[in-house]
Amino acid sequence: MTPPDLWRSLLFVPAHMPRFVEAAPRAGADAYILDLEDSVPDDQKALARSSLPTAVARISESGAAVLARINSGAATLEADVEAAINSGVHAIVAPKIGSCADLQRLAAVAATMETRAELPIGGIGVIGQIEDLDGLAALDEICRSPRLIGLSLGSEDFSRAARMRPTVQTLYHPNQLVAFACRRYGLTPFGFPGSIADYSDLDSMSVMVALAADLGFAGAFCIHPKQVAVLNRGFSPRPEALADAARIVAAYEQGLVQGRGAVQLEGRMIDAPVAARARAILQCFGTSETI
């Protein structure tokens, strides 16, 4: 599985609709979020949960990462997490995270379900969605939570909570706070400063994604297949970054031949973790031959 910081595009797919699940892999996303929340009507929630194993298996065939978004609140927590705990699921997306306590409850339920399913405890991570002002104020506390691998600002819900319009200007600062918090704690930030809902203006989205990449975001959620190519292009490394990754891998491998586990390259120390990151970039985005 590619690491989360290489997930450029994460496309929501309603778990209860087989035709969308069947078509999803053709979009070319790095990850697919099988949704039990916003895209599923209340009277279809049980169907979405029961459909999850089949949907996970279908999406997994594409080689992309598979995630599942649960509903917020205690009423459906156990049922949603039980459905999401599957050997093919890489992470749970948890909406409306307002405090560390929200994630602690989720982690406890997930551990119970992993035990029942005979899966490794803690093997399935969590991406939290910050969707109100309380969550934004508690970022440092939230980032210390168990299982957390990343965060995303929910542009529409957050804007509603803040009583503002979801524009680049209004969402720039809260997105930057999320990105800074993630980087402080070694987590992956997802998102861009703008509305996720408008998939008709892809040119404007390209500008927002380029800004997000400059801010340090690794990728973003999207709701329509048309948005996938914009995210993949905008969050892909520049040619000079690919060239640098190729030099890192070559230097490290030459060092191994010489019996060294760490080498110097252009004023930097290159050891196994640095080389692994560079190799992952090349595997996902290109090789020295394609630069």
Query: What is the percent of helical residues?
Result: 40-55%
What's the CATH class of the largest domain, please?
Alpha Beta
Helix and strand content put the structural class at: alpha/beta
Into which percentage range does the β-strand content fall?
15-25%
The major beta sheet can be summarized as: 8 strands, parallel
* Structural domain count: 2
Which features would summarize this protein structure in a list?
single chain; 291 residues; alpha/beta; TIM Barrel; 2 domains; two-stranded antiparallel sheet; 47% helix; 15% strand
Give a description of the structure.
With 291 residues, the chain is an alpha/beta fold. The protein is built from twelve helices and ten strands. Strands 7-6-5-4-3-2-1-8 form an eight-stranded parallel beta sheet. Strands 9-10 form a two-stranded antiparallel sheet. Helix 4 links the parallel strand 4 and strand 5. The two termini are 24 Å apart.
